[in-house]
């Protein structure tokens, strides 16, 4: 079985549409979605956003499971403008599975191989992005991969970390991180977001543009995961 993890259903929805024979499963107190890509059995699991919830959920998910590979997928924020919205990033520093096979299957897509950094919160300002890039050597950030990689190493599961860029210094988040997502409640407060947009009407167009970019990025990521899975031994 191949596992594919995402932080949230908003990231996995495109891939779910491509999955055949879908069904829900419940094990160790967590719900997953199983299905097939050709002859490959796939299990999709949502880790939640951020280290606290991700550590708890991934530990329960991997307990007593035998996996051929875990593909850690989702969105990431670029630290420089060499990456664009919709570009794919294969995290060299976290991936432990055979990368040569990965590169062959993704050769036709705009993929970058570089280091990814896991951070405790979304990065808003260009200045902060630049500082992190200079001090760490990473090209993008997310909020879960480090914890997934640790758990995979403990359980001996090969990991492929594949992220798609959702925002960059040139195309930043359309609202402050605290408005876009509440880490404690693991959801977006749409009333809070609407209030923020009402106070700054020009931000509405940034939000619309951001949503369109996210939709295209999600589709590209979904197709890339399918290409990856089809290259793995049945």
Short account of what is shown:
This protein has 234 residues and is α/β, with parallel strands linked by helices. 41% of the residues lie in helices and 26% in strands.
Structure description:
- The chain is α/β, with parallel strands linked by helices and 234 residues long.
- It has one domain: 3-Layer(aba) Sandwich (Rossmann fold).
- The longest helix has 30 residues.
- Strands 1, 2, 3, 4, 5, 6, 7, 8, 9 and 10 form a ten-stranded mixed sheet that branches.
Low-confidence stretches: none
- The number of domains is 1
What is the name of the CATH architecture? 3-Layer(aba) Sandwich
Roughly how many Å apart are the termini? 9 Å
The portion of residues forming beta strands comes to 25-35%
The overall strand count is 10
Reading the helices and strands in chain order gives EHEEEHEEHEEHEHEHHH
- Overall pLDDT, averaged? 91
* Fold-level CATH name: Rossmann fold
Number of helices: 8
The CATH C-level name is Alpha Beta
